[in-house]
Amino acid sequence: MLFFHRDEALNQLGEQILKATWATFPDLARNQIAMTWIVYDEPVPVNTGGALRPEEFWRYPVRGFAYRGSELFYPASIVKLFYLVAVQEWLEQGMIMPSAELDRAIRDMIVDSSNDATSLVMDMLSGTTSGPELPPGPFETWQYQRNIVNRYFQSLNWVELEGINANQKTWCDGAYGREQVFLGEQRQNRNQLTTNATARLLHSIVGGVAVSSARSQAMMALLKRSLDPADLEANSENQVSGFLGAGLPQTAQLWSKAGWMSQVRHDAAYIEIPGLRPYLLVVFTEGKTQSQNEALLPFVAQQIMKAMETLA
């Protein structure tokens, strides 16, 4: 079963939002967008400072809406959210040792979405390094090690995680050497995520049950985004402009992780707005036109906010 239950009111609103989106952006094909929207009713079980034990937290019912929520997309930098949880789990279990340099890489991976920082985090998670092609035997061992993050997430036995792939580094120019061989000639081994999988992972972080209460709160601190226009102007790659946060009022509080490259534009966000229920929103879009469209995700965010104002 999914971690949320489908709600008729949200279904109707979700369908209306999608219709409005397609009407406003006619170049957006029906199969170029996916969305998962979670609403938190009272008593709100998230952003409580980790007050709930995991067993209790997962018993709290939440309602949601999903459109193509189980469809696989290339996630771009959204996958860094999964590497963030994994590295915190490794640290919690003593599988890797903390260091100032690892802390710097974790921060830069999430706050600045640095691909170079992500490379170090993946090396630490898997005990592998990039480099020239390897002979068959060592390469088989290398591939097994690189799949450790996948094995970790599959061990959680969440139905939303079925079929995902999180074993690749993120690149600016592309993979080379053993990384390119691992990716595959047709990129058949590239990272793949769904909006439902991403929503559940973010739900667990905001709920304070990802790894531990303290580590969830530390992850939340890295995901916090400023909506102050001066801050956004000072940092052009702020993961707000052109993404969901750009459709929110300055009174909102936003925790998010964006993903963008030449073929996709995604965002995953937890949002609190005074006077409204808290909510979580994950939107994936693909296609070259959509990747360059800085108005699409803010439009969806605005439509969701208006819908939140109507909820009983």
UniProtKB/TrEMBL annotation:
<dbReference type="GO" id="GO:0046677">
    <property type="term" value="P:response to antibiotic"/>
</dbReference>
<dbReference type="GO" id="GO:0008800">
    <property type="term" value="F:beta-lactamase activity"/>
</dbReference>
<protein>
    <submittedName>
        <fullName>Serine hydrolase</fullName>
    </submittedName>
</protein>
<keyword id="KW-0378">Hydrolase</keyword>
<dbReference type="GO" id="GO:0030655">
    <property type="term" value="P:beta-lactam antibiotic catabolic process"/>
</dbReference>
<dbReference type="Pfam" id="PF13354">
    <property type="entry name" value="Beta-lactamase2"/>
</dbReference>
<dbReference type="InterPro" id="IPR012338">
    <property type="entry name" value="Beta-lactam/transpept-like"/>
</dbReference>
<dbReference type="InterPro" id="IPR000871">
    <property type="entry name" value="Beta-lactam_class-A"/>
</dbReference>
<dbReference type="InterPro" id="IPR045155">
    <property type="entry name" value="Beta-lactam_cat"/>
</dbReference>
<feature type="domain" description="Beta-lactamase class A catalytic">
    <location>
        <begin position="102"/>
        <end position="285"/>
    </location>
</feature>
